[in-house]
Amino acid sequence: MKNFIEELKWRGMLAQIMPGTEELLQKEMVTAYLGTDPTADSLHIGHLCGIMMLRHLQRCGHKPIILVGGATGMIGDPSGKSQERNLLDADTLYHNQECIKAQVAKFLDFESKENNAAEMVNNYDWMKDFSFLDFARTVGKHITVNYMMAKDSVQQRLNGTARDGLSFTEFTYQLLQGYDFLHLYQAKGCKLQLGGNDQWGNMTTGTELIRRTLGNETEAYALTCPLITKADGKKFGKTESGNIWLDPKRTTPYKFYQFWLNVSDDDAEKYIKIFTSLDKETIDSLIEEHRKDPGYRILQKRLAQEVTVLVHSQEDYETAVEASGILFGKGTKESLQKLDDATFLSVFEGVPMYEITKSQLNQPAVELFTQDTDIFPSKGEMRKLVQGGGVSLNKEKLTAFDRTVTADDLINGKYLLVQRGKKNYYLITVK
Hints:
By secondary structure, this protein is α/β, with parallel strands linked by helices. The protein has 20 helices and 14 strands. The strands form four sheets. It has a five-stranded parallel beta sheet, with helices on both faces. It has a five-stranded mixed beta sheet with strand order 8-14-13-10-11. The mean pLDDT is 91.
C-alpha cells in the first residue's frame, strides 16, 4: 500500500502537518475527514485539491469522510474572508449537499465493500438540536478566548480593513469546526482532519478541543495542502467570467477542458501532479517529453484530458476536443450540428454576433451579410472574397456570393456561422 504522506509530498500537496501524523498513518487504517461549505450546489476547481487529497487517502488504504457544513454553512467562516457570508436556509443546504455528493462520488468510492468506503456527513445533523447552553457547557469551557483571539484568521479580520469587523457568529466558527472533529472522533473514530492551509487555525482548535475534552493521550492530528496559485501569483481557478465549476450547467465541459488546455507550462507541471491520479513515473516522463517540444503542449493536453474525463466523462472530453478543433480550421457542418447549444455558444464566445428574424431568410447571402448584417463592408468585397475561396458558411466554402440562405442552413435550427478568411468568425442567431 502506498504511503499517503510520501504521495502528497512528491505531488506538492503537503503544506503543514502535525508531529505524529505520519507515524499514525503507517501503523493503522486512519479515518480522516475534510470539510466543505455547501454555499452553492456545485463545487468549483478551487475545491479539487482537497477532494484529490481524499482520493489519494482512500487509494492508500485509509477511510475518507467528506463533511458538508450544513450548520457551519449557516454561519460563515472568517478564514481568508473580508466579510460575513450570507446565511442559507435548510432546503437550500440539503439540495446543495445532494449535488455535491454526486460530484464527489466521481472521485471517491462510497460503495466499496472494504472497511475504507467513503462516507458523507452533514454537521447540521448533530448541531441542529444542540442548545446554546449545552454548547457553552460542552465546548466553550474548554477553549479560552485568549486561544481563539490568537488565531491568524481572527486577527486578520480584527485588524483588517473590513468595516463590519468580526461578528460573534463568525468568532464562534472555530469552536463549531472544532466540535465537528470531536464529534467525528467519538462517533466514527476519526483521528485526522485534512484541509486547505487557510484552515490550519480552525483545524488545530479541533485537535486542542479533543485533547482538552478527552485527555492528552488522544491521537488527533491535522494536515493541510497549500493554497493553489498560478505561476503569476494570481488566484487559481478564477477567470474573467468567474469560477470554473464542476457542474456542466454552470461551466460547460468544453470551457472546463479549455481552462486546463490553456494553463502555462509551469502551471501544467504543477497541476498534473495535483489534479490527476497519474503515477510519478508517467508524470516525469510526460514532463521530460514536454520540455523537448513545449509548442506541442503535451502536458496541457494530457492534463485537460485526465481532469475532464474524471469530472465529466470520456464522451464529454471527446466532444470538447472536437469542438476545440472547429476554431482552428478543422470541423465540418456535421461536427457543428453535433454540439449542444451551450457548447456551441461556448466555442464561439466573444465572436461578433448578430440577430435576424426568420423572415429575413430565403435571400441571397450577399444581401444577408452586407445589408442585414455588416459582416462585409460592401457587396464588392464579399464577391471578391467568395471568388478567392475565402468565405465559408457553416464550415462549408461559399462558392456563389448570391446563393440563397434558407432554414435548411441553420445549425440547431437557429444559427448561421460565417467565416471570413481563416480566423474571423461571425455568428448569426435567427429568432
